[in-house]
Design goal:
This protein is of the alpha/beta class and 231 residues long. Helices cover 55% and strands 12% of the residues. It has 2 domains: 4-116, Rossmann fold (3-Layer(aba) Sandwich), CATH 3.40.50; 139-230. Strands 2-1-3-6-7 form a 5-stranded parallel beta sheet, sandwiched between helices. The chain has a two-stranded antiparallel ribbon with strand order 4-5. The protein is globular, with a radius of gyration of 17 Å. The N and C termini lie far apart (46 Å).
């Protein structure tokens, strides 16, 4: 029987990447972009993958609410945050493991199968930030994550570029007003989506800026990488 998977992810590029990767298991994947949308779904699932940071709350809270109506629902958390403390908190909240974004399609499927088959999956490794010498677009790593599917990569990049200016503007506005929580949230989302499409220079600049907040010394490099990527 084809497993039914609930994927909760608010970033459209990340959600599309993960949906296509999981459907290749094969599986039937239902997506939701918020707690409210996920809780509005009436069906039951064999597995849920939940973003640790959602627009309307924490992933741990959503898992508890999902399990009030489907006890024992297997679950994976996913996040772009490398923090071991956060990963421990998520596992203590009931997630079987934490997948660190960006993640290769094959590794995501392996983690999902590990839970579906009642095996303990390994959390995946995160992409490390690089130097300013990184290429604007890293086609090789992006294609490797997608199993060489160039058509899917172009679809993801088109979706990513449609969202990029809005995301970047939200980050710049938050930095200008000293709203570090919003800046961190938006940078967190951007770091994940840049990894899925191979926007290597922007990913590194976003990670450097995020790690340094409230120090804004990384902002010029971030803005430069943003303009180079959109061009």
């Amino acid at each position: 029987m084809t497993p039914r998977i609930l994927l909760v992810e608010d970033d459209p590029t990340t959600a599309e990447f993960m949906r296509v990767a999981l459907e290749a298991l094969p599986a039937t994947v239902q997506t939701a972009r918020s707690q409210a949308e996920a809780l509005g779904l009436a069906q039951t699932f064999d597995l849920c993958l939940v973003d640790a940071n959602l627009p309307d709350g924490r992933g741990e809270d959503l898992l508890q609410r999902l399990r009030t109506r489907q006890p024992g629902l297997p679950a994976l958390a996913h996040t772009a945050d490398h923090s071991p403390a956060l990963h421990a908190t998520l596992c203590e909240a009931g997630f079987a493991a934490v997948v660190v974004k960006p993640v290769a399609a094959a590794a995501l499927r392996q983690a999902a199968l590990g839970v579906l088959e009642s095996r303990a999956p390994r959390p995946t490794a995160a992409v490390q930030a690089g130097s300013d010498d990184l290429p604007v677009w890293d086609d090789a790593s992006a294609l490797a994550a997608l199993g060489g599917n160039a058509t899917h990569l172009q679809t993801l990049r088109d979706l990513f570029l449609q969202e990029l200016d809005v995301q970047a503007a939200a980050i710049i506005t938050a930095l200008a007003s000293g709203d570090w929580a919003t800046a961190h949230q938006q940078l967190h989302r951007l770091r994940a989506s840049t990894g899925f499409v191979g926007a290597a220079r922007l990913q590194a600049a976003a990670q450097t800026l995020d790690a340094g907040l409230p120090d804004l010394s990384g902002e010029p490099a971030f803005q430069a990488a943003w303009q180079q990527t959109r061009a």
